[in-house]
Every structure is written in C-alpha cells, then in structure tokens.
Specification:
With 314 residues, the chain is α+β, with helices and mostly antiparallel strands. It has 2 domains: 7-166, 2-Layer Sandwich (Beta-Lactamase); 206-298, Signal transduction histidine kinase, dimerisation/phosphotransfer (DHp) domain (Helix Hairpins). 62% of the residues lie in helices and 11% in strands. It contains 7 helices and 5 strands. The chain has a 5-stranded antiparallel β-sheet, covered by helices on one side. Strand 3 (109-115) and strand 4 (118-126) form a beta hairpin. Helix 1 packs antiparallel against helix 3 (144-179) and helix 5 (209-257) runs antiparallel to helix 6. The longest helix is centred in the N-terminal third of the chain and has 50 residues, at 7-56. It starts with 6 loop residues before the first helix and ends with a helix.
C-alpha cells in the first residue's frame, strides 16, 4: 500500500525545493560573475605586461638576437613570480622559456590552460602585430589560487544550498503545521459529532478567511442534520405514542379471549375485533408515512389537464 504524503510534508518539501533552486541559481550566478571578474583582471594584467615585453623585445627577428635581451627579461620576470614567458619562432620552435613545464598555448588570444597541480591564463600574440612571420610571445599567469578560490566557493554554494533547503524544510514544516491548525480543529469537531452532540459548531470567527466559508458550510450541514434528527426523533415518538394504545387493546383483548375455552363463534368475533384494530393501525401508519414524505418533500404532486374555459363558464 502506497503511503499518502501529508499536505504539510508536501508544502515543506515545496518550500525547500524553491529555496534550494533560488539559492543554487544565485550561487551559480555569483560564481560565474566572480570567474568572469577574475578573467578580466587577468587579461588586464597580461595586457599591461605584454606591452612592456614588446618594448623590450622590439625588433627581435632571430634567436641569436635574444641573448643580449635575456638579462632584462629575467629581471622583469623576477618581479612577478606568478608570471612566465615563452618566445617562439614563426616555425613554432621555442626560443626562450622562463619556466619549465609550461603547457602548449593557442596560436593567439586569451586561453585557460591546465597542468597537473597548476592552472594558467595565457595570452599569445605576435611580437609585430602586422607581421605573421614575427616571433610569438606567450605570457602565462599562474591562476591556481584563483581556481582554488572558485572551487571553494562552489563547495560553499553546495553547502549553502543544502543547509538552506534543510532549514527551509524545518521552518516550512513548522509554519505549515501552524497554518493548518484550523483544519485539524475542523477534523476534531467533525470526529466528535454524534447523535448526542449534533449541536456542536465550528468557531467561524476564529477561522482564517480561507476557511471561514468552509466552516460556515459545515455548520449549516450540522444544523440540517440536527433538524432532521429532531424530526426523526419526534416522528418516532409519535409512532410509539399512537401505536401504544391499539397494541395494548389487542393484547388485552387477546388475553381475555384466552382466559377460558370459547366457542367457534366467540373466537371468530375476537378475531374480527383484532382485525379492526389492525386495519386501524395500518391506516394510521400509512397516514404517518404520508406526512413524513410530505415533510421531506418526497411526494410528487399529481398533474392533470385543466380546461380553463369550462371552469370559467361553470
């Protein structure tokens, strides 16, 4: 048998689901905005450093020309430990790499690269923008700490969603239980109604507006039941009162008849007397049933055509 889920549980779960959905949406939006903010900051930093390296490497056309410029490059790179540089020729050969283990970068543009234990934001451009044969500069920015922050934020979002859903479910269950208290009161009143307590009524003034109409309808139903029960009780009392006398007469007449042996004619007369009493009782019962049907609107009035001109002429 499938267990029915209570209305309170359904509402509490619905509150929890809505809160979880809103919290998750807000968390993902915030996480996305934070990630985009970090990307913009990284790009601004890479663009600013790129202009500096372009100035230092201006006119570089061959790997042999690079040796004289390496001290200045290394000095500049030493000022920012999370920045790395790779210089490649037009054929893709690496001319200089400030850090070993750098991942391959796209031919141009901004990209996010991943290696075991380290994440990078890379920016690859040609040293001379108008020359496709110019050496390629690729700047690498270590963003591992950014990624750790975003991952921690994602875990915090999931934790917040779970705790929010749990807290909302508990608070929602309490709120729903408090809000549905009038319904439980109505159920208790309905359960207490019996033949001896048909005068019980719901306190309409204490009911919330949404349940006031239902409470009024239930009170009206109880009033109709009370009226019908009172009529039924009165009808039963009338039947008992009306039948008591003829039944007593029948009993007395029969007992007198059986006190001694009698002739056939005397027994016949006694039976005729009982028959008259029984016929009177049957007629009385039919009359009372007719009145009961009329009182409850169960009689269908007879219909017959009527010639009005004949009635007027008469």
């Amino acid at each position: 048998m499938i267990r029915r889920v209570s209305l309170g549980s359904r509402l509490a779960l619905l509150f929890a689901a809505c809160t979880a959905a809103v919290s998750l949406g807000a968390g993902l939006l915030f996480n996305r905005a934070s990630e985009q903010h970090f990307v913009e900051l990284d790009q601004q930093l890479l663009d600013s450093r790129l202009s500096l390296f372009r100035t230092q490497l201006a006119g570089l056309a061959a790997v042999t020309e690079l040796q004289a410029r390496l001290p200045a490059l290394r000095n500049e790179l030493s000022h920012q430990a999370d920045l790395a540089l790779r210089i490649s020729g037009s054929d893709g050969a690496t001319w200089f790499e400030s850090r070993s283990g750098l991942p391959p970068a796209p031919a141009a543009g901004l990209a996010t690269l991943h290696t075991p234990g380290t994440d990078y934001r890379s920016l690859a451009v040609r040293l001379a923008q108008d020359s496709p044969q110019s050496p390629q500069l690729t700047l690498y920015l270590d963003i591992t700490h950014h990624q750790h922050f975003l991952q921690g934020m994602q875990r915090l979002i999931w934790l917040t969603v779970g705790l929010s859903a749990l807290a909302t479910a508990l608070l929602g269950a309490w709120a729903v239980r408090s809000g549905l208290r009038p319904l439980r009161q109505m159920g208790q009143v309905a359960a207490s109604v019996s033949a001896r307590s048909l005068t019980t009524r719901l306190p309409v003034a204490q009911m919330p507006e949404e349940l006031a109409e239902l409470a009024t309808s239930m009170n009206a139903m109880l009033q109709r039941l009370d009226d019908a029960f009172q009529r039924l009780s009165a009808f039963s009392a009338d039947i008992a009162h009306e039948l008591r006398t003829p039944l007593s007469n029948l009993l007395t007449h029969t007992q007198v008849t059986l006190t001694r042996p009698r002739s056939l004619e005397e027994y016949r007369e006694a039976l005729h007397g009982n028959l008259e009493e029984l016929q009177w009782m049957a007629q009385m019962i039919n009359d009372m049933l007719f009145l009961a049907k009329a009182d409850h609107g169960l009689l269908v009035p007879g219909q017959a055509p009527l010639a009005l001109h004949e009635e007027v002429d008469a």
